[in-house]
TrEMBL record:
Sequence intervals crossing the membrane: 44-64, 76-99, 120-146, 158-182, 194-214, 258-278
Record carries keyword Membrane: yes
Keyword Transport: yes
Superkingdom of origin: Bacteria
PANTHER family in alphabetical order: NODULATION PROTEIN J
Protein name: Transport permease protein
Sequence segments annotated as region (Disordered): 1-20
Annotated membrane topology: Multi-pass membrane protein
Similarity-based family: Belongs to the ABC-2 integral membrane protein family.
Keywords: Antibiotic resistance, Cell membrane, Membrane, Transmembrane, Transmembrane helix, Transport
Length: 286
């Protein structure tokens, strides 16, 4: 018997344990499963996709009456669009996962997964993949509505779209891993929404989503600067607003380096917290 034949015989010997796929492949398969599950939840689809569009319509209509503009001639719809893109990412990543994971844990879905060979890393990758797909669809719809109904000019250069891409991808990843990390805080699925929603609302109010950021009190701007949403919104403003609008920022510039640094820092914090605190079981289940 040749060495090749012997090797094949050992690999196919009855009773031998099959080799499991790698973590990346498992993560991709899990992402497909998560995406299919999300699009079956019609109420979640309507809320997550419609919320940024509705809020943009409200603020653009209320503040933009009679052609009113932000300083430097920027229409209100154009100014608020970046904040709505950022808050849409926050809702579909951080809020969605921080609420849905405790519910899955309460219903026993995570306990069943914990009894399988699925690595936690593959589960995390699946969640990030689902958030990425949902966020792409959500933002695409928002941009179409902004351009067609509110005449918001889209970025005209490849460099601006490149900035949009890295802020978007980094924001999605950061929001997703922070959502996974925060999901261990609610004591049950029933309390998750009550714990997470106020956090999201406060961040929206202080991060330049519902108001022009430069009009907020200085102390509020400083608090907002600690958290990712402010930097996502600022990064998106650098894409959709004219270059001279950078003077409206407290620093007088777009601060791309600081945006990347803060988002990466929160990405690392979210990963560390998620890995150290994630649980397959409920607290009262051992």
């Amino acid at each position: 018997m040749t060495a090749t034949t012997a090797s094949t015989t050992r690999a196919t010997r009855p009773g031998s344990a099959p080799r499991l796929p790698g973590t990346l492949r498992l993560g991709l398969e899990r992402a497909r499963y998560e995406v299919r599950g999300f699009f079956r939840e019609r109420d979640a689809i309507v809320f997550i996709f419609a919320y940024p569009i509705i809020m943009l319509a409200i603020f653009a209509t209320v503040f933009g009456q009679d052609g009113a503009e932000v300083a430097d001639g920027v229409p209100f719809a154009q100014y608020f669009l970046p904040g709505m893109v950022a808050t849409g990412v926050l809702l579909s990543s951080f809020q969605s996962l921080a609420i849905s994971i405790p519910v899955e844990r309460d219903e026993g879905g995570l306990k069943r997964l914990g009894g399988t060979p699925l690595p936690a890393a593959a589960y995390f990758l699946g969640k990030v993949g689902q958030v990425l797909v949902v966020s792409v669809v959500q933002v695409a719809l928002l941009l179409v509505v902004a351009a067609t109904l509110f005449d918001v000019a889209m970025p005209g250069t490849a460099a601006l779209w490149g900035t949009f891409a890295w802020v978007f991808v980094l924001g999605v990843a950061t929001g997703a891993v922070c959502g996974v990390g925060f999901s261990s805080l609610p004591r049950s699925g029933r309390s998750a929404s009550a714990v997470v929603t106020p956090v999201v609302l406060v961040l929206q109010f202080i991060s330049g989503v519902f108001f022009t950021f430069y009009d907020l009190p200085t102390w509020m701007q400083q608090v907002a600067s600690v958290f990712p949403l402010k930097w996502m919104a600022q990064g998106m403003r650098s894409v959709f607003l004219p270059e001279e609008a950078a003077a409206l920022e407290p620093s007088g510039s777009w601060q791309h380096g600081a945006t990347a640094a803060v988002l990466l820092a929160w990405l690392v914090v979210g990963l560390v917290v998620g890995v150290r605190t994630f649980r397959w079981r409920r607290r009262d289940d051992g």
